[in-house]
Amino acid sequence: MLTLKGEHIYLRALEPEDLDFIYLIENDERIWEMSTTQTPYSRFLIKQYLENAHQDIYDVKQLRLVICSYDDATLGLIDLFDFNPTHNRVGVGILIAEKEHRGKGYGKEALSLVKNYGRTHLRLHQLYANIAFDNTASIKLFEKEGFKKIGIKKEWNLVDGKYKDELLYQLIYVH
C-alpha cells in the first residue's frame, strides 16, 4: 500500500472503507464544477471503482490518494490524472473536503508530497493543474508551490448558465 508521509498529514491509497467518503464527495454538487461531473454516482459504481483502485498508474493513467491527518481523520483527496509516461507529465487536482480543514496547510503539504513523489517515483518532467479563474485559494496554493500560470482557457466551463475561464498552471521540474 502506498503511503506518503508528511509532518501533519499522510497520503494513502484508497481503501474499501472510503466508500462513504467518496460517495459524499462525488455527489456534492458544489464540487461538480471542479471535477466536470454532471450526474450523481451510485454507491454501486463507487464500490466498483474502489475495487479497481489498486490498478497501476501506468495502466489506468490516474491515481487518487486520500489525505489523512495522523489521528486518521479523512481530510480530502489528491488526484493525479491524464498520466502520460511518454512525455513524463501528469495533471494534479486537490480537494480538502470540509471548510474547517481548509487554510491549515493540509493542501500545501499534500501537494508538496505529490510533487516529490512525481519527481522520485514517476520521474516526471512536469505537473499541471486546471483551476477556475475565481478559485483564489487554489491559485494561491499552486503558486506558492512553484506552479506558473501559462494560459487562460477562455469561457471554458459552463457553470450555472455562465461560461467561466479556466487557468492552466504548470510546474516544470528542474533536473
From TrEMBL:
Gene3D superfamilies assigned: 3.40.630.30
Limits of the N-acetyltransferase domain: 9-165
Enzyme Commission designation: 2.3.-.-
Acyltransferase is among the record's keywords: yes
Top-level taxon of the source organism: Bacteria
Pfam families linked to this entry: Acetyltransf_3 (PF13302)
This protein's UniProt keywords: Acyltransferase, Transferase
Top EC class for this record: transferase
A single GO molecular function term of this UniProt record: acyltransferase activity
PANTHER family assigned to the protein according to its UniProt record, in alphabetical order: GNAT-FAMILY ACETYLTRANSFERASE (PTHR43415:SF3), SPERMIDINE N(1)-ACETYLTRANSFERASE (PTHR43415)
Protein name: GNAT family N-acetyltransferase
Source organism: Aquimarina rubra
Lineage, opening ranks: Bacteria, Pseudomonadati, Bacteroidota, Flavobacteriia, Flavobacteriales
